[in-house]
Please model this.
Amino acid sequence: MNIGFPVQETIQQRYSVRTYDAKPVNETIRQDILNYAKTLTNPLGPHTRFQFIDVTTSDQGQKLGTYGFIKGASLFLGSTIPDEPGALEALGYEYEQLILYMTSLGLGTCWLGGTFNRSAFASAMEIREGDLFPILSPVGYPAAKKRIGEDFFRRALKANQRKPWDKLFFAEDFSFPLTKEAAELYQYPLEMLRLAPSAVNNQPWRVLLKDGIYHFLLYRFTGESSSSIDMQRIDLGIAICHFHLAALEAGLTGHFEKLSLTADILPKNTSYIISWIPA
Ligand SMILES: Cc1cc2nc3c(=O)[nH]c(=O)nc-3n(C[C@H](O)[C@H](O)[C@H](O)COP(=O)(O)O)c2cc1C
Model:
């Protein structure tokens, strides 16, 4: 796979942009983004479809709002996916790769799973029967300065911080943290995973290295999500995307597989997603 951007630099560059410049994203760049989207694949589920919604030309116009969370954006990228097993994880993976690609083009983005007028945006999109419409992002040039409210929101979410290694990565069982030294060549993909964005910066991903295999797990702070759009499953897809792109870039070979990990080795509130089997 030709990733098309430097992984570490782009992951470190990306942040949620909530204030945009008035400069429009031209048609050539929009087409380039859609062409890149067509090349996306993922190990988790079905494919995501992406559509631009231009607020300046949409019939829904004024109704296409984000409750004041996003300022100055006139272009949004909506995503839909068939409601099949693994769909939300797959969408997280593919949309994050596209977000990183857009970041490498100098564009700003912000994952939006909650703070937008969902019904108005849904009317402005083409949604096939049986598809989910989980996520949207503004796409545009970041304004030179963030708003005061935006800084406040970032501080409340501790958006610049991530949990340390010993809270996220484990070796053999959950009593032992996986050290950077023990992760050897996998230190880099795991560190890139650790920098992933997540809804309300919850960071629900956990990785267990057992018998040489990396198992990706979802740790829920609360019980099962009752919503059809479970943001934490999207978070897992994003994290797996970071891990995989970094592994590919570093030339680490292996493959993803769904194994039958027995529930007795998983701590409470943890569910199994997929495993990476190094070659
Ligand atoms: C699945 C998902 C849903 C999100 N939904 C929203 C949202 O509705 N509104 C918002 O302002 N930010 C949203 N975010 C952005 C997160 O708050 C942000 O990624 C996190 O605080 C880390 O900050 P960073 O992206 O700047 O690194 C979402 C992020 C993810 C991954």
